[in-house]
């Protein structure tokens, strides 16, 4: 809120002013910008309850971006997607190596199971031959 609009609001609301002490070093500059005297903000709330919040809302509203949260969520989702792609690209080679190891392990185990079956069959045949 610009100082001019502050001054106009205070004048329009007919709030009581208070003289500024002569010993206050800020008096000259303040009064050159805002006029003579000062008004305490609690006077506004005391004389016109709820008016301060209305003024604040009216003055702040033009600066509120209603779409900000939605745009933020979209950007975060986009960033997560890009990050996931980058991470996948970084580990793709390692994933391939792990898959090769898994396939090799599967073949190794298949081979060992076949040998175990052969040994078991041989053992069973020998038992049958003895009986």
Task: Provide the descriptors you would attach to this structure in a database record.
131 residues; 5 helices
Description:
It is a single chain. This protein has 131 residues and is an all-alpha fold. The chain folds into 2 domains: 61 residues, no CATH class; 66 residues. 75% of the residues lie in helices and 0% in strands. It contains 5 helices and no strands. It is rod-shaped. The mean pLDDT is 85.
What would the principal axes of the Cα set say about the shape?
rod-shaped
Number of helices: 5
Percent of residues in beta strands? under 5%
| Helix residue percentage | over 70%
H-E order: HHHHH
Q: Main beta sheet, described?
A: none
State the distance separating the first and last CA atoms: 106 Å
Q: Spans of 5+ residues with little confidence (pLDDT < 50)?
A: none
Radius of gyration: 41 Å
- Provide the structure class: mainly alpha
Count of spatially separate domains: 2
Number of strands: 0
């Amino acid at each position: 809120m610009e100082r001019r609009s502050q001054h106009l609001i205070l004048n329009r609301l007919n709030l009581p002013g208070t003289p500024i002490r002569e010993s206050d070093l800020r008096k000259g500059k303040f009064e050159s910008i805002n006029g003579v005297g000062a008004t305490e903000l609690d006077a506004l709330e005391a004389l016109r309850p709820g008016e301060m919040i209305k003024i604040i809302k009216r003055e702040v509203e033009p600066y509120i971006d209603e779409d900000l949260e939605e745009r933020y969520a979209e950007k975060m989702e986009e960033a997560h997607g890009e990050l996931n792609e980058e991470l996948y690209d970084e580990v793709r080679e390692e994933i391939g190596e792990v898959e090769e190891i898994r396939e090799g392990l599967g073949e190794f185990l298949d081979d060992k199971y076949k040998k175990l079956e052969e040994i078991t069959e041989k053992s069973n045949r020998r038992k049958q031959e003895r009986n």
